[in-house]
């Protein structure tokens, strides 16, 4: 039996392979709508309910099913969130706007 994958499916499968964990999202899970950056590095996320969460808290929330559409990956000892590949780039985290956070609220 021959097994063939479309190029898009193969790319998606390989990208999913880079994720350490793909948590199942709860029905009421938030989506990431913006990135909080400092010196070009992601330090946190704005969620669809307009709350801002730090990166480490977002990873914990994603593991608990509280954030939809993301998996957890790592580089070295650092964990980070990554969009679950779905064949489109428009909803990748890297395409989201950078949001500013009032320093008085942090």
Low-confidence stretches: none
* Average pLDDT metric: 83
Rg value: 15 Å
Q: How are the strands of the largest sheet arranged?
A: 3-2-1-6
The number of domains is 1
Query: Strand-residue fraction?
Result: 25-35%
In DSSP terms (H or I, runs of 4 or more residues), the helix count works out at 2
End-to-end C-alpha gap: 58 Å
Largest sheet, in brief, is: 4 strands, mixed
Question: Structural class of the helix and strand makeup?
Answer: alpha+beta
Query: Overall 3D geometry?
Result: globular
Order of helices and strands: HEEEHEEE
Number of strands: 6
Helix content: 10-25%
Structure notes:
The longest helix has 11 residues, at 7-17. Helix content is 19%, strand content 29%. It has 106 residues and is of the alpha+beta class. Strand 2 and strand 3 (52-54) form a beta hairpin. It has one domain (22-105). The chain has helices spanning 7-17, 55-63; strands at 32-38, 41-47, 52-54, 70-75, 78-83, 98-99. The mean pLDDT is 83. It contains 2 helices and 6 strands. The strands form 2 sheets. The protein has a 4-stranded mixed sheet. InterPro entries: DUF3892.
